Here is the input.
Amino acid sequence: MDGKVIVITGASRGIGEAAARRFVAAGAKVALLARSFGVIAELAEELGDAATAEAVDVADWKGMERAIERVEEVFGPVDVLINNAGVIKPVDLLAESDPAEWAKAIEINLSGVYNGMRAVLPGMLERGRGTILTVSSGAAHNPLEGWSHYCSSKAGAAMLTRCAHLENAEKGIRIMGLSPGTVATQMQREIKASGVGPVAKLNWEDHIPPEWPAETLFWMCGPEADGYLGQEISLRDPAIREKVGLK
Here is the structure.
């Protein structure tokens, strides 16, 4: 990954932070995108000249467009986009949910993925190369109590991945999704606190570390993952874990 430019949304913690560290360790230049500028600025300072921080709400199209423009001014054309930003709050039953909060989750988890793709695709198509990876979820394919906003948004993002692959695969663009399973991040603390649904009943030690999906995202950038283009890779699959080298 020497010299490659990687953009990671939701880079302030969890999978995004772990992925940033993994790619920088491999020689990449990483742009950290998140709403919490203070957190990503501190992380960028720790990572050194190989990292830059851009405050952006992925649900804001113009903001995302400007963020990608600034990244390319600093580091050059984007080689890899990792759509990682997402929210689980508020976990609530559909009949009791807040319409505005429900819609906001859709804007971040689905429109945010679209905004990222839309911002980088023209440049990637012009160059005839690029990789777009989106962090998905088993919730994209299975209904869960209290998660109507999350399941619906992740299902939409999974279909968006398939549509983007259909339109761009023959033009040199690699597009895939990653379903990591349950990961030991702040999101799991929020799910636990809600007390709603089966995932809230899991213990902390039941979750995989964020370094596992980070390593898998890194692996997905290489030709070994080309057999999964247009699909979702599941970290629940022992065969995938073996290919990535996870134990």
